[in-house]
Amino acid sequence: MSQANGQYFQVDMVGPQVFNQITLTSEGTSSDYPRAYQVFASNNPASLGTAIATGVASSTLVSIGFPTQTARYVRVVQTGSSSSWWSVSEFNVWAQGR
């Protein structure tokens, strides 16, 4: 399936965590990175609020920084489009500088 606006990847970290960066990797698939994205963090997946980060990616390693959050759920929403698939082979949540 091609990348399309509105597709998303969500992680449940089981409980609230403190973090200020995520990384997405699509190793082995050089064209499957998200073309554009929004990131949301929440303790309730039914109420995400406003995006904590937005951007455009251009490689298989996408590093996204934002103000420190405390949340259980992280959702990355695809806002771009491409004829390539959207693959996530590794997803990391970081608390840099803590």
Low-pLDDT stretches: none
Q: Tell me the series of helices and strands, N- to C-terminal.
A: EEEEE
Binned strand content = over 45%
Q: Which class do the helix and strand fractions yield?
A: mainly beta
Helix-residue proportion? under 10%
Q: Mind telling me the C-alpha Rg?
A: 13 Å
Largest sheet: 5 strands, antiparallel
Strands of the widest sheet, in order across it, are: 3-2-4-1-5
Mean pLDDT: 94
Distance between the termini: 39 Å
> Tally the helices: what do you get?
0
Number of strands: 5
Q: What is the 3D form?
A: globular
Notable traits:
98 residues, mainly beta, five-stranded antiparallel beta sheet, 5 strands, globular
